[in-house]
Design a protein that fits this description.
The complex is a heterodimer of chains A (about 425) and B (about 350).
Chain A: E1 8-18, H1 23-27, E2 34-45, E3 50-54, H2 61-68, E4 76-81, E5 84-85, H3 91-100, E6 101-104, H4 108-111, H5 118-128, H6 134-144, H7 150-154, H8 163-175, E7 181-185, H9 193-210, E8 213-218, E9 230-235, E10 238-244, H10 245-250, H11 255-262, H12 311-325, H13 331-337, H14 343-354, H15 361-375, H16 379-390, E11 401-404, E12 407-409
Parallel strand pairs in A: 3-8, 3-9, 6-7, 7-8
Antiparallel strand pairs in A: 1-2, 1-4, 4-5, 9-10, 10-12, 11-12
Helix pairs in contact in A: 6-8, 8-9, 12-16, 14-15, 15-16
Chain B: E1 6-17, E2 20-32, E3 37-41, H1 48-55, E4 63-72, E5 75-76, H2 82-89, E6 94-97, H3 111-122, H4 127-140, H5 157-169, E7 175-179, H6 187-204, E8 207-212, H7 215-221, E9 224-229, E10 232-238, H8 239-244, H9 249-256, E11 306-307, E12 316-317, H10 325-334, H11 336-349
Parallel strand pairs in B: 3-8, 3-9, 6-7, 7-8
Antiparallel strand pairs in B: 1-2, 1-4, 4-5, 9-10, 10-12, 11-12
Classes of the chains: A alpha/beta (about 425), B alpha/beta (about 350).
Chain lengths: ~425, ~350
Amino acid sequence: MSSDAPVLEINDLKKYFEGDSNIVDMILRREPSQIQAVDGVSMALEANESVAVIGESGCGKSTLLRTLIGLHDSSDGEIIYKGTPVSEFDAADWKAYRRNVQVIFQDPFNSLNPKMTVRESLAEPLGIHGIDNKAERIRDVLRQVELQPAEKYLDKKPMNLSGGEKQRVAIGRALILDPDVILADEPVSMLDVSTQAAVLTMMKELINDFDVSMIYISHDLSTVSYIAESVKVMYLGRIVESAPTERILEAPKHPYSKALVSAIPVPDPHYDRGRTEMSGAPRDPIDIGEGCRFRDRCPEVIPPDELDIDQQAYREIMSFREQLERDEITVERIESIVEEQERSALLDTIQDEYFTAEITGKNESTLRAALTSLVEGDDDLAVKNLRERFGSVCETTPPEVESEPEWHVACHHYGANDRSGEKRGAEERVVHTE
Amino acid sequence: MSDPLLEVDDLTVQYETSEGMLTAVSNASFTIEEGEFFGLAGESGSGKSTLAKSVIGGLDSNGQVSSGEIRYRGEAIQDLSGSELSDRIRWKEISWIPQGAMSSLDPLQRVSEQAIEIGNVHTELSDDEILHKLKETFEIVGLQESRINDYPHQFSGGMQQRAIIALALFLDPELVIADEPTTALDVIMQDQIFRYLDRMKEELDVSLLLITHDISVIFESCDSIAIMHASQIAERGTTEAVHDNPRHPYAFMFKEAFPDVREPKRELEVIEGYPPELMGEVDFCSFADRCPWAAPECRQGAPPSEPVDDDDPEHIAACVRKSEAYELYEAGQAGEESAGQSITRMGEVD
């Protein structure tokens, strides 16, 4: 690799955890379920660049960070540090990596040793890496994180510092080894808003002054413009959109990014942004197979061309079929709540339970036929019939395409080809044409 | 009937500690009318949660209302015993959505069982009547009636939120107190919760006392706001009045500290220091030590809560320099130089 290689490069990184399995699973030799926490993330971090990874809790952003610092082994894919894959590291490489890639954690209340003074906390990493002139370095770093005068802080323990001051010490501890990369996990989310801005601005200046690169992980899009030039939006283990910060805040493309940006509260009583239309929460990333991760909640999920159906009705049918496929719907449960066991009453109950949208015409008759198969115990036939009529291109994984310079989106609405020219269907594979 | 729903009148709440009486709320006053959404904002340590807890008699055992009154429909309730509050006020009149609402359902009980437990403590209703009410409320928050017998784990995350709101509403309270109901939630989830709170307002005409550190949420969702700093209410009024014409330095600095996604590059205000812990009587402005415009009189007696002369007669600010502080601040924003001088000058006065 040349010296132009990014500081940190991630190629198709995956981190799967094995789900719980019980004794029955063992006897039946079932494969344990896979929790797909990080599911094919790629990115490159250039020198002096600050990239934000934004997503809701459970989207895998913290797992990504832990995998990057070696707390988790990756399941697949590569992490490449200055041209050398982490998988080829020897002990000395690891030590250098741990010195050069530093982490700032979310919770300054727990990330500092309560028994150590500020001086001791800052001296510890220097000792581990055998660096001299500690006193001078510690003073320098305290100046950089704006804890002045140093004498006032050096002998204090964390309990005598405010949250903002603690986080500054934690940042100082990360900087004192002069790292190349800082990985920051929600560094200001536990701070009061009166100090958030100060800490963010300071971090931004430090990146500029010290030639550091940063991956900033947060659920908060509203402050990201103060720290990162570009944003990657993550949903259920995958990056769905990457773009320069201001542009994505102004006009997000991926339906999930749109939902995320439009749900940010605006501090203005005269402005009515409207409440989110979305319902539900992200599902668990367990054995979720192919397809767009967002399709079960997506307000713009793509029905087959010839199908005449309202968005919500369509999404409900798709989500119902997928629950069937995952064995999450049982007739027994429904029978337990319906008093009349008569066929049509049972079908009505199922429909009431799982569908709020009005479903009419041929769509309804297909649905009713499928429900009948379900009640008769033939789940597979129900799934097959629903799939035939209601299959979506969104059930195939959308390729990441560059829809504008520096702006990548992984959504079938932004296909490499014009969507209208495509033939679509549930069984069809989307050809990657980048 | 002309009495406001809730009046907090010159309320002081203190905690007994080994070092003396710690004052968490000092001479706080505000009212909430029927159907009004009222937001109480402040940093951690401002006393906002203590204030909310005192309304339903939920203070920790070392806490007490030292002076002032809390009136519910004109009746002073601060001295009622726990059992009187439970019999007459809690849940039927004033209910509670707890902090970290998402984890507040008992995982071992069906939602219907939890409702019956609450109903039996606070009402004379039969179990059937309680379940009937719960079903009606489930309908309002968009849950199937048939699901009242589910366990919390059978609900998705979004449905759990709705179940919690339903449990706060099912005994037809007039006022719901929500203490940081959406803190630590992602924005989409937060917005979903507020969508149901909006609906609760429209369909049931319920009032809300919303406690939060997030002023954005209050500006969006509430009719009125009070901004609290270290035990004192710095400023209150309609959200429009406080947003458009903030007079207390803490109010406008706090407001300017919040990011606005419409202006991603706007400089955010930084408030130096943190709220002090106050022992005994608070006879000074608790913000004085953090305030760039503090004058000697700020430390000579608590600042009077006086009306701000604008469209909102209920717009009150507790600052001796309220007629000029914002202009000084704006001048500072406009021209760094002249502002620097005026701030230094103020510092010298001090």
